[in-house]
Amino acid sequence: MWIRFVIFIFLTIPVLFTACDREYYSESKADRLSFTNDSVIFDTVFTGFTTANKTFMVYNKSKKALKIASIRLGGGDQSPYRLNVDGYSGTLFSDVEIAADDSLYIFVAVNISPLLQNNPILIDDSLTFQYNDNRDVVKLVAVAQDVHLLKDSVLLTAEWTNDKPYLIFNNVWVDTSHTLTIKEGCRIFMHTGAQIIVRGTLKIEGSLNQPVIMAGHRTEEFYVDIPSQYGGLVFEGPGSNHTINYLKMTNGNTAIKIGKPRSVDIVSLTITNSRFINFAASVIESYGAEITAGNSLFANSCSNVLKLQRGGKYRFEHCTVAGYGVYFCNLGQPSVLFSDFVTDSTKIVNPENNLYFANSILYGNYTSELTIRANDGDLNYFFQNSVVKLSSNANMPNLHYSNSVIAKVNFVRPLYDGKLKKDWDFSLDTLSSAKDMGAGDVANKYPLDINGNSRFSDGFPDAGAFERIEK
Predict the structure, then answer these.
(1) What is the mean pLDDT of the chain?
(2) HEC per residue, the chain
(3) Kindly report the CA angle at 377 between 371 and 383, in degrees rounded to 5?
């Protein structure tokens, strides 16, 4: 009798568990999974490198648990995509459970082998979820792009063209007595900390319709307004006559470092039609250099936008200099610092101590956006037909100001708007005090603004890099 009872128990237990399993898991085709995304898209993937993970979630909103018979990566082990499902890596996952009103994390990354061609290629795959006679599909899409890879490279005279992007790791040096020419349309992506160090000569030759682009190597949307993603351009000398035309440079640490605190070499640079936005330190950090800038935008940093130390010779015409801080650093410092010494008290006399602004804008978050520090006598600085943000009770003596005003500028959108996913916009709105205040003789040097609009379409040029075009 006892033996019969034991045999009955062993035969009954599997049936009970099967009955509980059927009761616990939904078998109804009507109970469906839902997804945060129907596709996972990687905008630009540089071949040979693994991307950061993208995440989506799978939800079970039914009243019973669901057992997913399989989650399958279409390309299997040959796919360039990599998966992690609930903490496990692989290409095929079986009997994955999601409790009622619960969810599941899925992480996706991609590493695409070099394509051996210049044009980008669309690389796709899919994830298939099979359960209760249902089949759901999440698409995986990446735009893959081959690159010119440079790492710790010393460059002799060379010309970069826009056949495919340039990806820079660590540092690239332009050797003494050699010239690097970067042609229109080139895209340069810099890895964390990367710099282009110029000991020879640099010539950037962008155009209105095909500017040269320099940015961090992370192309995900999350990084669109994150500063300090790379180092920047470093001009060490003794090379000179550097030129930058139509460059858009964003999200670095310092865009341009020029000269050295303890060097008597004078490095010269001309900048035209260029935009520098969102830097963790300064846009320009200069030591006794000679810089001529026209039709250009210098905006948003955590320190001074223009940090001009140990004197030098600086000329800014039809430029917009704006300081509104950056991500994690909203206030920053006054936009322009001009001094004849270095903050570490290094004493090197510079025969040139001149700062000149014409038809320009100097504005930002600070009460006064101009700091002048003289250690050895007076400094020569002069603002002509410009808007300068100073404290409300500041004097504007003729020695330093001519036809210039202290007034609100009214930019369209000086801060990045993450909700709208739009770019910074330092053009003038219709109420701006910078309208029509430019001097004609200065505007004649730059008859078109940074966007290619005529400065004389309404008869009078505006101050700054952008001409207001009324619609």
Answers:
(1) 89
(2) CHHHHHHHHHHHHHHHHHHHHHHHECCCCCCCEEECCCEEEEEEEECCCCCCCEEEEEEECCCCEEEEEEEEECCHHHCCEEEEECCEEECEEEEEEECCCEEEEEEEEECCCCCCCCCCEEEEEEEEEEECCEEEEEEEEEEEECCEEEEEEEECCEEECCCCCEEEEEEEEECCCCEEEEECCCEEEECCCCEEEECCEEEEECCCCCCEEEEECCCCHHHCCCCCCCCEEEECCCCCCEEEECEEEECCCCCEEECCCCCCCCCEEEEECCEEEEECCCCEEEECCEEEEECCEEEEECCCCEEEECCEEEEEECCEEEECCECCECCCCCCEEEECCCCCCCCCCCCCEEEEEECCEEEECCCCCEEEECCCCCCEEEEECCEECCCCCCCCCCCCEECCECCCCCEEECCCECCCCECCEEEECCCCCCCCCCCHHHHCCCCECCCCCECCCCCCCCCCCCCCCCC
(3) 45
Which residue shows structure tokens 């309208």?
A: 435
Given pLDDT bands bounded at 50, 70 and 90, which one contains residue 458? confident
Instruction: Find out whether 98 and 71 touch, Cβ atoms under 8 Å.
Output: no
Direct distance between the N- and C-terminal alpha carbons of the chain, in angstroms, rounded to an integer: 99
Question: In the structure encoding, which two tokens stand for residue 138, read together?
Answer: 């999440």
Q: Which amino acid is at 253?
A: N
The CATH code of domain 147-443 reads 2.160.20
What pLDDT digit, counting tens, does each position of 137-190 carry? 999 999 999 999 999 999 999 999 999 999 999 999 999 999 999 999 999 999
Q: Tell me the residue type at 170.
A: N
| Whether pLDDT at 398 is above 70 | yes
Q: How confident is residue 214, by pLDDT bands cut at 50, 70 and 90? A: very high
Do 33-144 and 147-443 show the same overall fold? no
pTM: 0.86
- Residue identified by tokens 């349309």 is 185
CATH number of 33-144: 2.60.40.2310
Q: Which of 183-197, 220-234, 415-429 has the lowest mean pLDDT?
A: 415-429
Predicted confidence (pLDDT) at residue 466 exceeds the cutoff of 70: yes
Per residue in 78-100, pLDDT (tens digit) is 999 999 998 899 999 999 999 99
Would you place residue 422 in the very low, low, confident or very high pLDDT band (cuts 50, 70, 90)? low
Domain boundaries, the chain: 33-144, 147-443
- pLDDT at position 237 over 90: no
Please state, in angstroms and rounded to a whole number, the distance separating the CA atoms of residues 333 and 303. 5
